[in-house]
Amino acid sequence: MNFSADDISEWKDILCDELQNKTDDEINDYLLNLQELTLYQLKCESLPKSLGKLRNLIYLRVWSCPNITTLPEQIGQLANLSELRVLYCERLMHLPNSVCQLLNLKKLQLSDCHQFGELPEQMGQLQQLEVLERHSCLYMQSIPKQIWQLKNLTELTLTAVNAVLPDDIGQLRKLQKLNLSGSQFKNLPDNIGKLENLCLLVLSYSNLKALPDTIGQLKNLKYLHLNGCNQLTGLPESIGQLGNSLQTLELDGCDFMALPNSIGQLKRLPNKWRLPMGLTSLPEQIRELSFICHLIITIDDKHLDIIEHIARLLPNITTLEIRDAGYHSNCSLTRLPETIGQLWALQILDLSGCEYLRILPEQSIGQLRNLKILDLHYCPKLKVSNEFFDALSECQILGKKRKKQS
Fold first, then answer.
1. 374: Cβ–Cβ under 8 A, 6 or more apart, which residues?
2. Would residue 322 count as lying in a domain?
3. Which CATH number fits the domain that encloses residue 150?
4. Residues 155 and 185 reside in one and the same domain
5. Above 80 in pLDDT, residue 140?
6. pTM of this prediction?
7. What is the DSSP letter of 220?
8. Which of 73, 77, 28 is nearest to 47 (CA)?
9. 97-129 pLDDT, tens per residue?
């Protein structure tokens, strides 16, 4: 028997449902053959040292164990372990160095372990590792250099990192997904352009101020997420070099002065797209994106000129959602310009939630003969005339009612 009486007693307490009514011999065999183990909401401060005897274990998940501060050193004996996930263990502070002996480990995930500090220094020994996820890296002051030795890594997630991202990241040539959302760094290293297999790059809600020109070298990049990067002032011209691959460019919450001329080369963007805030004009080359028919814009009274540019350069817009930038700036949207009437193809105009909107150019909107739906829900300060209802008799006006005649 591999497990002592004390071991078995300890596992009975942990796996009471699975091991009840089993003899000690049956429990011994059960543990020896166990391939998948989830330890959920345990109150103990440490896991059994006999965990290392589960030699056939392939998947280990430690989930919502609030009192655990580390894992037993014996975990390094799990020679067949392929996946280790530690989730919502709020007091977990580190992993034992023996984790680096798990030479068959392919996935390591640490999520919402808010006290966790640094990763083991010998991480580079995990040469089979394909997925490394560490969410909420609040206490991570540096990224172990050994991470860049993980040549088989295809997915890397390091969110809310306080550390600087080094040039060494360019060594991860097999990397396909990189998530650095919520991180504090202000720049990406130029060597990021060497990640030739990268298809997903998530930088949302980071302190990023600029993208390097080498971003254009990521010829397989399909998804670029920049939502909430409110310190980012624009995109490099090299973004146009991703025209054959980029399918998603998320800019919600970004405040740009301008879009690059090369934006017109991104012919694989979806037909529904959100423009960043802050724009008062559009580059002429954006007319090459004539396939865009559904546009979302966030504006205030200082940026109304963008409507005219949309009408002139993107004439095929059939759905326009306008959101109030007042949630992000000191200025709100109180009116719409007369140029809204130049959007001849418009079928849906969604102004819902513009709570400070007071004035509609009724005559101009009345010229939109293709307009089918005008959504004015949650626009409490806006008043519309009965004549406006008459002019749009073929259009559904949502959120407002015709005034009763006295």
1. 349, 351, 365, 392, 395, 396, 397, 398
2. yes
3. 3.80.10.10
4. no
5. no
6. 0.94
7. T
8. 73
9. 999 999 999 999 999 888 888 888 899 999 999
